[in-house]
Structure formats: structure tokens, C-alpha cells
Amino acid sequence: MSQLILTKSQARKIILHAAGLSRPAQFGKGREAVYKLIDHLGYVQIDTNMVVERAHHHAIASRVPDYKKEWLDELQADGRIFEYFLADAGYMPMNDFRFSLNVKESFALARDPLTQPEINLMERVLDRIAREGPLMVKDFDNDREVASSGWWDWRPSKIALERLYFDGRLGVTRTKEFHKVYDLPANLVPNDIDTTLPSPEEFARYIIRRTLQSLGIAYVKEIAWRARRVKNNVVKKELEKMVAEGEVCQVAVEGLTTAPLYMLRKYRNKKIELSGDAFVLSPFDTLNVFRHRLKDFFEFDYQIECFVPAPKRKYGYFSLPILVGNTFVARMDSKAERKQQVLTIHNLHFEPVKLSKVTIGKIADAIKAFAKFNQCHKIVIKKTNRKEYIPSFS
After folding, report:
1. In Å, how far are 1, 109, 202, 227, 386 from 102, measured between CA atoms?
2. Does residue 292 form part of some domain?
3. pTM for the complete prediction?
4. What is the Cα–Cα distance from 120 to 177, expressed in whole angstroms?
5. How many domains does the chain have?
6. Residue 274: inside a domain, yes or no?
7. In this model, does residue 146 exceed pLDDT 60?
8. From CA 157, how far away is CA 224, in angstroms rounded?
9. Beta partners for 181?
10. If we measure between CA atoms, which residue out of 366, 334, 360 comes closest to residue 348?
């Protein structure tokens, strides 16, 4: 099998273009650009962490400069996107709805047998929502029999709602406070949307195309990660067929001795130019979710440290990668102090790369734009390893 050989620079261009980060406003501006972005990526991950603006808003704002948070709600209300749990919770284009059915089926089949009281409760929950319309957890009586033991110790009605959501009998929207609102899929999915269950092979090809479109270049393990809710080896088999058919290329990157890499053929001769702009990225951005990819392709060793015990953190609780052109140049541990309208940067750590005054200015502008996006009018930098750069940020 012949391989396409790429330089690391070529690989980075393809990856950044696929991620929507080759230039600002790669998908345009306005609400339609938000839809185009979600439709291209196939999946924008949701995270509830509010140290800075939530990850899904952050990821979109990185790519749509005039982004307004209400646009997501409007797109969902218009039936153009929906929320579901694929690899993680995220927003997906409504045209992909039928491919969520494979995952929903897998959740229903994989869970432990339910007791009759659990089944009865789920039926009562469904009946109430069918009769009364969309409901939230708070709309159900507190049916907890013992005190909660922690964050994931949900009361029975919450468990019932989530089971119905995961197996597809309920869908969700969100309030302005980001609380889930549960509703029947018939009220959320437009009538013209295909709701037939894809075959395992069709689902596998969907995952392969979506993953390679958003990652640009990927390993099998990254493609399989998106399909991990469906337990079979069909992804690898269909990938081999798609290579043989010519839709997918097997590639190698100079200087990397790794497992085989794959790319959609449409990226093979695409002319891509990077603008050289700076982007402050979410830890949960499409570009950052696989740590090994950042090491392999960008020589950037990054880890979100909110999951690391405090004594072992090197850069801070919630450090944000900063990308300029095709290079990660810094990481910024920050917190939006919303009442004070201050973006506090606990640690602005620059990587050991040479930065020109122009580049430092771009980084400063990106951080200022990020502060504004977080409704902060002042930036306070408490620590940095390059104090000579800081006057540019004032």
C-alpha cells in the first residue's frame, strides 16, 4: 500500500485547516458561521467548567470573532443542531441525528438489567413530559431516600431522566443558566430529518469521515475513540475498505515513527495558507483533546491540570494553550473574575521559542480579545517566565 509522505509543516497546515484554525473567521462571521463550524467539525464538546467561559462557547469564539452565546440556543431552537453524548457531551448538526441512534442503542443494550421500580419510574417520567411538556430535574419531587454522598450520587428521578436521555427516548436543550431541559425527541427533531438506524458499517464510515474531516490527519485509535460506545471492530475494517476505494489516504509524516496515519483524499492537494494569527484555545478544543497528537505533530507537551493534584501542577489549574501560526507559543492559567470584570492570569508561561515583537503583539491582542469575550475589562498578570514581554499587554 503506497503512502503519501508529508513534511511536519504540511501536516500541521492540514490539521489546523481541518480544525478551523488556519485563519480567523475561516467559516465567516455571524450565526451562520457558527452552524458552518459545527457542521464541519461534526461535534463541539460541552464542558461545564466556568473558570473562564465554558468550553463550547470558547471553542466557537476562537473561530467566529463576533460570536454571541445566544446563537447556539437559536440554532438548536431552529432545529439545526442538537446536543448528545458521542465521545463526550457535545453539539452536533441535526443532519447527523440518525448517527446518534447507534450510540443510543448501545447505551440501552450495555446497561445492567433494570428493576421493575426503575422501569416504572422511567415510564412515569416519560408520561409526565408527554403530558406537561419540557421539564427539568427540579420539576420532580425529591425522591431521594438517603442523603447524597457526592456529585454523582443522583436521586432516582435524575437517574431516570438521564437514562431516558442516553437511550434516546428524551432529548435535551439548555436554560440560560445551562440547566438541562428534557423533552420528547418528536418536539426537538424536525419532521424532515432521517431517523432510520444506520447499519454498523454505515455508522463506522460516518465516524471515519467526521473524525478525519475535523482532525485532518489521525491514527486509528482516535477514530475508534469516537465510536467507542459501539463495541466492534467494524471501524478498522471499513477504514481499510475506504483506503482501497481511494476516499482515504494512508500517510506518513517525516520525522515521525508512529502507527499508520490516515487522511481524507480531499485534503491531499488542498492549498492551505496559515495567517499567522494568535488563538487562545480551550483545553477541550478539537485540536487539544488528544495529548499525544500535540506531542507528535506540534512538539507541545500539554495537559490540562485541573485533574492533576495541586502539588504536582506545573503550569496551573486551567491553563489555556496559545497558538500562533503553526506553533504553540505559550500556556495561560487564567480565571475570569466576573463580578470584578477582571481576567486574572495566574501564570503566563511562554514556551522556549523565539518571538518577534510582532508576534508578542499578536499574543497580547488575542489575550485582550479573550478577556473581552469573558466580559472582563482589566487584565492582571500575577506570574510569567518572560517579564520583558508584559509591557505589550498593558
Report:
1. 32, 11, 10, 9, 50
2. no
3. 0.94
4. 30
5. 3
6. no
7. no
8. 33
9. 173
10. 334
